[in-house]
Amino acid sequence: MRKLLILFVLIVCGALFYANSNRPEGPITFLDYSYFTEDKLDTIEVQYIAWACACANWLPKENQASDIIQDTSCIFIESACDQQLPSKFHDNNYKIRLVGRYYKNKGISRDYEKPTSEKPEAAKIFQYMYYEIL
Question: 72 vs 14, 16, 28, 67, 68, CA distance in Å?
Fold first, then answer.
């Protein structure tokens, strides 16, 4: 009987945690991350977009040709090591070349810092091993 009670409490706590983590203003949790990268190594060029919302904010070069830029065109970036991109490059004037891999599934970057209490929508994530300022 005691084991059933413990199991019931764990299920209820897990359900509450899951329901709370999926709310738009909820915290970013391990459920929001992606865990497996593609096998193929890519080189991409990105530019920072300063949105007024919590969302992916790096625009890949192939999406920069459009006159209308939407938040769904942007990706998250994440460092594969301790070589984080300095925040001074979070400016529309810089273009950055990244070498790394895309994650297989959409999610939220582990390096993402929420500018508001809102939780961003899942987007493609590029995990870079090397960056170069263009």
Answer: 30, 29, 19, 14, 11
CA atoms within 13 A on the CB side of 44: 24
Match 């070069």 to its residue by tokens. 61
Q: Give 106's pLDDT tier (boundaries 50, 70, 90).
A: very high
pLDDT at 37 over 80: yes
Residue 109 to residue 75: CA distance in whole angstroms:
9
DSSP 111: T
Give the SS3 label for residue 105: coil
Q: Higher confidence at residue 23 or residue 4?
A: 4
Q: How remote is the C-alpha of 115 from its chain's centroid?
A: 13
Both tokens of 45, joined, read 């060029």
